[in-house]
Specification:
Elements (H helix, E strand, L loop, with lengths): L2 H4 L3 E4 L20 H15 L9 H21 L3 E8 L3 E8 L24 H8 L2 E6 L5 E8 L2
Antiparallel strand pairs: 1-2, 2-3, 3-5, 4-5
Helix pairs in contact: 2-3, 3-4
Length: about 160
Amino acid sequence: MTSMERHPLAHHDLAPVERPSARSPGPPTAITTAAAARRHVREFVGERWRSPTGPPTEQSMIDLILVVSELVTNAVRHGGGIAGFDVALTPEGVWLSVRDHSTAVPVGLHGPGVLPRAHEGNGYGWPLINRLSSEVDVQRRASGGKTISVLVPLT
C-alpha cells in the first residue's frame, strides 16, 4: 500500500474540483506558485490542526513551510509545472503531495539528516525535503508525470 492509499489527501488541482468540506477550508484553490502553496498550508494548519500538545512549534512550522517551498519550486523548475497540490493532516503531521508533468524522478532518497556526498549543482532542495520529512513517496502517474508525497512531522 502506498502512502497515497493510506493517507487520502484534499485535492487542489489547477482546475477546481469538488472535495469534502471536512478536509479543506474554503473553495478549491489553484496552487501555481510556492508563495500560494505556503499561504494555503499556513492557513490550513492554522485552522485545522488539533493536538492535545497544542499548536505546532515555530520550528515545526518553519520546517513545514520550507518543505512546501522546495516541493513546489522543484515541480515548477524541474517538473514542467504543477499539475496538482494536496494537503492533509494526520496525528503525526502534514501530508503534502505535489503532482508535476515530468516522469523524471529525483536522484536518490538521502534519508533523514543525510545530505548528498557531492554537490552536483542542482541545489539542496531535495536533500532538505528528505531530511525534514519522516516519509517520502515518489510515484509515476499512469496519465504522465509524477506525484511526490511527504509526511512532515508537527510537534
